[in-house]
C-alpha cells in the first residue's frame, strides 16, 4: 500500500514538473502580449466604459482568477478584439492565461518597491484600530486579523512565479507605458 502511494505521488510530481517545464513564459509571448494590448487599448477603454455604465463587471480584486476572467471577457467583447488577439497568435484558450501571467508578473515587479509602503500603511491602520476607544478588544482583534488577512491574500494573488517575473522584467518599462 505504501509503495502504491509513493509511486502515485512520484508520478503526480513528475507530471506537475513536466507541465510546468513545458509552460514557461517566453520573451516572444511577452512581446506579443504587449503588442496586443497596445492594439486593444481603444477597445479596452470602451469595454471599461460600457461595464461601468451597466455595472456588468463585478470583479473581485481578491479573486485569484480575476486577470484570467478579465482577459477572457476582453476576447469575447467584440469581433474586433477577437480579431486583434488572434492576429497576434493567441486563441480563446491561450490569451487569458498568457496575458494574465504577463500582467501578474508585471504587478509583482511593480510591488517590489512598494513593500515598505504597504507595511507602513498596515501598521498605521493597526495603530488606528488600537487607539479607537469605541472598539472592544474582540472587535479590534477581528479588524486587525481582517486587515492582515486581506493584505496577505492580495500579496499571494499578485505574486507571479519567479520564472515569469524574470522573463517580464526587461519589458517592465514598456508594459508600464502600455498599461497607463
What does this structure look like?
- The protein has 180 residues and is mainly α.
- The protein has nine helices and no strands.
- The radius of gyration is 21 Å and the shape is elongated.
Question: What does the average pLDDT come to?
Answer: 80
Low-confidence stretches: 1-22
SSE pattern, N- to C-terminal = HHHHHHHHH
Mass-distribution shape = elongated
CA-atom Rg in angstroms? 21 Å
Give a short summary of the structure.
Helices cover 78% and strands 0% of the residues.
Element layout with pairings:
Layout: H1 2-22, H2 27-54, H3 66-77, H4 79-87, H5 94-112, H6 115-131, H7 137-157, H8 162-168, H9 172-178
Give me some keywords for this one.
180 residues
Amino acid at each position: 500500500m505504501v509503495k502504491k502511494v509513493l509511486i502515485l505521488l512520484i508520478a503526480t510530481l513528475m507530471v506537475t514538473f513536466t507541465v510546468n517545464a513545458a509552460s514557461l513564459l517566453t520573451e516572444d509571448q511577452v512581446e506579443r502580449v504587449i503588442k496586443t494590448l497596445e492594439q486593444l487599448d481603444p477597445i479596452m477603454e470602451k469595454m471599461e466604459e460600457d461595464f461601468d455604465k451597466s455595472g456588468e463587471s463585478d470583479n473581485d480584486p481578491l479573486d485569484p482568477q480575476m486577470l484570467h476572467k478579465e482577459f477572457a471577457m476582453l476576447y469575447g467583447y467584440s469581433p474586433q478584439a477577437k480579431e486583434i488577439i488572434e492576429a497576434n497568435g493567441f486563441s480563446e484558450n491561450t490569451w487569458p492565461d498568457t496575458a494574465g501571467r504577463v500582467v501578474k508578473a508585471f504587478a509583482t515587479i511593480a510591488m517590489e518597491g512598494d513593500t515598505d509602503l504597504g507595511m507602513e500603511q498596515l501598521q498605521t491602520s493597526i495603530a488606528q484600530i488600537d487607539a479607537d476607544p469605541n472598539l472592544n478588544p474582540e472587535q479590534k482583534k477581528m479588524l486587525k486579523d481582517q486587515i492582515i488577512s486581506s493584505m496577505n491574500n492580495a500579496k499571494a494573488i499578485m505574486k507571479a512565479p519567479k520564472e515569469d517575473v524574470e522573463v517580464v522584467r526587461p519589458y517592465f518599462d514598456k508594459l508600464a507605458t502600455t498599461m497607463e
